Amino acid sequence: MSTSSERFIFEPSPEASAGSWAEDWQEIEKRAAADPLAYWEEQASELEWSQPWEAVLDDSNAPFYKWFVGGKTNIVTNAVDRHITGPHKNKLALIWESEDGKEVRTFSYFSLNRDVEKMANILKAMGVRKGDRVTIYLPRIPEVFFAMLACAKLGAVHSVVFAGFSSDALSSRIDDSESKLVITADGSWINGNVFPLKDIVDEAVKFSPTVENVIVVKRTGTEVHMDPTRDHWYHDLENLPIARGRCETVQVDAEDPLYILYTSGSTGKPKAILHTHGGYMVGTYTTLKNTFDIQEDDRFWCTADAGWVTGHSYLVYGPLLNGATTFMYEGGPTFPHPDRWWKLIEHYGITTFYTAPTAIRSLMRFGDAWATRHDLSSLRLIGSVGEPINPAAWHWFHSVVGGGKAPLMDTWWQTETGMFQITGVPSMPQKPGSAGRAVFGQVAEILDEHGNSVPDGQEGFLTLKNPWPAMARTLYNDEQRFVDTYWSTYPGRYMTGDAAKRDEDGYFWVIGRTDDVIKVSGHRLGTAEVEAAINSHSAVSESAAIGLPHEVKGNAIHSFVVLNQGYAGSRELTEELRAHVSSHLSPIAKPDEIEFVNTLPKTRSGKIMRRVLRARALGQDEGDLSTLEE
Ligand code: WT7
Predict the structure, then answer these.
(1) Complex-level ipTM
(2) What is the third-level CATH fold of 521-618?
């Protein structure tokens, strides 16, 4: 991070701190630091519990922390049920617009509940019970809300898979979670074209012994094959008597699992992050309330897909827990024109807008006029997530989109953390390029490789000292990997995998991943996953993937490929391999460049030295090569 940007500090206007932030944030920060458990207890008390907890935190079996032990609730009790018995009954919970702009669907809390109950009744009739896993593979349509909330309502565990993953990726996630049901759609709209979701599911469940039923939402009207013993149209099920009537929200233990979400790590096998009802509910409720200062008349738009953790925490659960109106748009930012998002903000009077730096950078390139010809003055707060936001993108987002007045909340967190860990509140001065300060009740520390604290201003490993309610409880079916990955480098502390600096004001400057994870357009990909996809092509002997800086995407994937005997590198083969990654993993993982090489640099024990490839590509010093094989 350049030091010149550190000198620019944005002091929020009095209006920004007028709302619930009239109170001095420094006071709250101090109070929470003195007694984090009292702070979290206070937050939990703002929500409904059918049985109170006996202890806020049980750390006797760390790192398997337990929160609100003995407490009973359900995240749906607080996200939906409590609103329909109170003043929010007729308030809009969800506004949705289709990609082509021709359809709008709105749901009050009352009608959202009706749809959630309907879906829950159907799942129940299909034998879904507390603890059962359900895979959800849906586009950005309201049914993804119904499906997630219906699972949670029954105490079943949802596993949402981003509907851009290939059948291989989907199938391994279905099998790993042993899902008995898959909820999907016939297809999804992507820039006017149909992406064949149901075909992909058919391929994925071919050899999945656990899947008993597949529910299919009709979205694109595409012709699909329906297996009469397994597949059901949602619009048929909806009209059956089983779908009718009330469906009780099952009261679960605070520590009962709410969902599994697969994310990339440093091996080819994605990590199954497990989150629970009680702590996750308290964490997402509190952090959204604090950072986005949720107000009664807000229209909150988080552009993330429900297939990622940002969609889970701040598109679905966080806004509903706060009784806010959440907005979902089916399409992307540039179809049919690069002002699609700005048009939506103007039309719906969006007040709070949360997106990723890569989207900002790509929209910035089309010029200011696409944004400035729309009235964006409804925006009160804007936010960023997924990767560091570079000062140029920060200033453009802040001045052109936020009108120079809306505080820009950068939020650093991870699939594992469930909720923000480093961010601010609107009345806190913001420094462009810094994610801000540790959230109330948290202590973040920069350590060197020996676990010693690093002086302010110097780079090191970002760690979190205090447990927090929305923390991942484990990796589903892999407790050892959970301990090894996050809790072994610095015993008693959570290792984030990121490099960062802290400045003398206590603000954090995140640099990026230090492991074999690459953030491409804010998406998290593992080098090993990309390599496994390329290596599955018959021409390939082995390969290495690295991330290199990219102006819009943040990082782009470059692959180094060793071909089998009898194959020669060519333009055609390059395109074929890129398409192969697209169809075997996901289009988001498609390498920008493929280089054919004779060998890969490896350690004597045979590990690929990706850092050497990276240094060479960037023309940097290759560093210590003592372990490089001859
Ligand atoms: C990684 C986690 C949970 C949000 C979506 C991504 C990077 C995330 C920021 C930020 C700098 C950020 C980190 C982190 N990251 N937010 N505001 N500034 N870097 O979740 O896919 O689990 O990725 O995203 O490198 O470790 P994820």
Answers:
(1) 0.99
(2) GMP Synthetase; Chain A, domain 3 (3.30.300)
